[in-house]
Structures are given as C-alpha cells and as structure tokens.
Amino acid sequence: MSKQIHLNAFSMNTIGHQSSGMWRHPRDRSAQYNTAEYWIDIAKILEAGLFDGLFLADVLGVYDVYGGDVSEALRTASQIPVNDPALIVPLMTAATKNLGFGLTATLSYEPPFTFARRISTLDQLTNGRLGWNIVTGYLNSAAKGLGLDNQPKHDTRYEIAGEYMEVVYKLWETSWEEGAVQRDAARGLFSDPSRVHKIRHDGQYFQLDAVHLCEPSPQRTPVLYQAGASTKGRAFAAGHAECVFIAGPSKQVIKPAVADIRACVRAAGRTTGSPLVFTLMTVITGRTDAEAEAKFAEYKRYISHSGALTLMSGWTGIDFSTYALDDKLQQIRNDAIHSAVDAFTVSDPDRVWTIREIAEFAGIGGTGAIIVGGPQRVADELQGWIQDTDIDGFNLAYVVAPETFSDFVEHVVPELQRRGVYKTSYAPGTLREKLFGAGPLLDETHPGGRHRLGRRELAA
Fold first, then answer.
1. CA distances from 314 to 44, 309, 323, 368 (A)
2. Which of 99, 214, 217, 282 is most buried, taking the most CB atoms under 10 A from its CB?
3. Cβ atoms within 10 A of the Cβ of 373, count?
4. To 5 degrees, how large is the angle CA 434–CA 437–CA 443?
5. What are the C-alpha distances in Å from 93 to residues 39, 130, 337?
6. Block means of pLDDT (10 residues each) for the chain, length 460 residues?
7. Which residues pair with 131 in a beta bridge?
8. Rounded to whole angstroms, how far apart are CA atoms 74 and 416?
9. What pLDDT score does 331 carry?
10. Using an 8 Å Cβ cutoff, are 223 and 132 in contact?
C-alpha cells in the first residue's frame, strides 16, 4: 500500500514570503495580508482541499544582511512588513472545522510563562487544532530589536531551547492534573486545589515559581514542529519534534537529511512517535502540462532577483551584494541557518551554484524544489519524492496567493485521491489525532508526556 501524503500550506503574515516580487503579479492578493478576508479565504480553500494544516512562518527581525541595511528588503517587500501570526489563527478557526494551524514562535525572546499561556489559549480556541513550530531565531536584527547586542551563538540557542522546552512542558503537562477542573456548580467547586501545582524551576537560563494560568487545553502541549536541519537542530528534533520541516533544492539534498533525522530519533531512544518529515515544495499546476508551463513562464517575469538575494542573505548570513552574479557559492559557517547554505554546497557536491542561479532558483519558492505540470505529472513527482527520500509530506509554498493553493486543490488533490495516496475526508479529533491516529495528548514516552501527572492515579 502506498504511503499517504501529508500536506501543509506554507505562508506568512506578510507580503513577500518565499517568492520575491510576486506581489506585483496582477492576480496576487498577498498585499491584502492585513485583512481578515484574505486569511479566511485561504483557510476555506485549504480545508476544501483537506490540507492537514496551514504552516505559518514568522521572523521577529528584518533582512538587513544584504547591502548591510534593510533598504532592499523594504523596496522588495522581502518579509517586511510582517504581522503577528498568532492573531490570525482565531479568524481562520471560526471559518473552518478541521484545518490545523502550525504557528511559528521564536522561543529566544519571550519568557516561557507568558508564551505557555498564549499557546494554551490558542489550543482552546482552535479546539485542539494548534501546532507550534519551535524556532530559535537566526536574525541578529531580532536580537537588537529585543535589546540585545547580538543573538546567542547557534549551538547556544539550542541549549537555551532545551531548557525552555522543559519549562513549558512543566507548565502544560504538570501544573494542572487530569481532573483538576471540576466545574461543580452544586458544590461551588470549579478547580480542585490539590490537583493544581506550582511549578518551580531554577535553571541556567530560566527561573520560574508559578502556577500555569490556563486550565488544560485539548492537547495540553500543541503538536510540536521543528524546522532546524543543522546537526544541533536535528538532535533537538530527535528529542522533541512530532513533525520536522526541512528544505532543499533536490532529492540529493533531502534524502540524507531525512535518513539522519530518523537515525537521530532512534539514537534518542524514541521507540514510538517517530516524527513526520515535511519538505518545502512549490507546485505550479494547471489542467495540462502546457498550461502549467505557460503559467511558470509568466510567473518568472515577476521575480525580484535582488529580493531573492535579500532573503538568501538573511537565511545564510552571507551578504550576496558583495558577490558578482557569476561568482560561485562557497560554504561559509556563521550563526545564521547552517542548512540554508549547505543545501547549495556540501549537501550536493555535484552541483556548483552561481549567485545568479541561486537568485533565479530562490525567486520562486525559496530554497525548496519546484514541480511544474498538470495533475498527472505533479502526482507522479510528489509520489517520487515520497518514495525516493522517505519524507512523509510537503509544506507547499505559494507563488501567487491564493492562486497556487486553489490550483493545487482543483487539479492535483483529485488525482492524488484517485491514486489512493491522499485522504478523502478528515479524521475526527484534534490535530494530533488527525495526524497520528492516537490520542489528543503527547505519548508518555515523549519528554513532554513524561511530565504529565495524574493519569496513572486516575486509571488505578
């Protein structure tokens, strides 16, 4: 039996997300990102296509590596202006019943106490359809915006993340036992104080002495996504992630990354709950191959090469404005996203990229691969990626919004369903239940699940 394909849409509460310059396209609506109608329409399209979720990226800084300032990012709308992704989730929740929401939130710059409350609130409002993409940040401009001189070093950020997770697990899983909330009007007892616990944590990076402010949400801990593909990032994912998001321009880059993630999970001793792995993909489709190829050619006329290099400079920490377009990219190590430059260098040593080629490639879809074709060709390619790389699904970036998503739903989803590799209805329950077919809470073998109190006592 063929593996079932999982799908997320990949977007951001901004204009220029992954495809630079496309906001100028006459059919693109991404400049309406700051309206409720825009996000509600996207959510309805995705739910009609039975997408698992909408994966919302975010950054707290600006892309100011290219040219040494933010000028080109502003000119090209390269992920600026950018609004808070958490605030659009309730809008889309009210317009849907099953679509999940993967919220990117940077743990480096917010105390775990307030963050845990916001996530519990959103998981309650979505009736358990929330996921959290755990990121540690990569832009120095974000650190400076939060009053720091520079962001911590790459590996230090993951050390901080490990302790951060311990704190939020305690808040979500330990503070309120199962059965703490009574709602007993006759006795005048809303919560049983003996089942609500103060969390005390005195660590290297965080200190806490407090009760979690929220009663348990449907999932307690949201579905945990992680998008770091560096050595440290993969080790972190092996310990915590239920879903892993990676990106690369070819199967040659993605296949060993997936194998390494799965090996790290086994080494971490997680015998159950092996994460679903999603890769970034952009699909341009139509009724026929010729129609899709014509659409691709049309899109390419709107690419902003300087905008693409502005984003790449931020992702890699390399100022591409200092290179000639025909220079070849060399591997450079810094405190940005290690995997972003590796994907174009050491991960595929048979391919040597010039700066011009990177700008043209990243101008549509960012650092992920692109599939262009009618329903049959796209379905063949998606199944080929699943088979050849051992991924579980795709985070689908848009080129023109919401056209890219509606095209996929209209043309590709029926073909995948016909082949029996894509669901024809949503499973019931929370996002975790829909994705994994198990219960709404973290498995007890997961580090977060091990913090949960009260289950054994209630079962006894």
1. 32, 8, 15, 16
2. 99
3. 23
4. 105
5. 10, 10, 32
6. 91 93 96 98 98 95 93 95 97 98 91 97 98 87 81 87 96 96 97 97 97 98 87 84 92 92 84 83 98 97 94 88 84 47 54 83 90 98 97 97 98 98 98 95 90 54
7. 102, 223
8. 39
9. 52
10. yes
Tokens representing residue 135 in the block: 């990121």
428/282 Cα distance (integer angstroms): 29
What's at 195, amino acid-wise? R
SS (H, E, C) 108-164: HHCCHHHHHHHHHHHHHHCCCCEEEEEECCCCHHHHHHCCCCCCCCHHHHHHHHHHH
* pLDDT for the residue numbered 420: 98
* CATH superfamily membership of 6-459: Luciferase-like domain (3.20.20.30)
* pLDDT score, position 271: 64
Cβ-based neighbours of 58, under 8 Å, separated by 6 or more: 12, 13, 82, 84, 85, 103, 104, 105, 106, 135
Name the DSSP letter for residue 242.
S
237: CB partners within 8 A, 6+ apart: 226, 228, 244, 261, 264, 265, 275
Q: HSE on the CB side for 457, CA within 13 Å?
A: 8
**Which amino acid appears at position 272 of this protein?**
T
Helix (H, G, I), strand (E, B), or coil: what is residue 443? coil
Q: Determine what percent of the chain falls in helix, strand and coil, rounding each to the nearest 5.
A: 45, 15, 40
Question: What tokens does 267 get?
Answer: 């080494």
Q: What are phi and psi of 173, to 5 degrees?
A: -105, -30
Residue 217 token pair: 């949400």
Domain ranges (residues) in the chain: 6-459
CA 105/CA 115 separation, integer angstroms: 9
Question: What's the pLDDT at 456?
Answer: 41
The CB-based long-range contact list for 380-388 (8 Å cut-off, 24+ gap) reads 382/5, 382/281, 382/283, 382/412, 382/416, 383/2, 383/5, 383/419, 383/421, 385/251, 385/254, 385/279, 385/281, 386/3, 386/5, 386/421, 387/3, 388/251, 388/255
Q: Please tell me the predicted confidence (pLDDT) of residue 317.
A: 84
In the numeric block, which tokens belong to residue 224? 């945990």
pLDDT of residue 455: 47
For 391, the 3-state DSSP assignment is coil
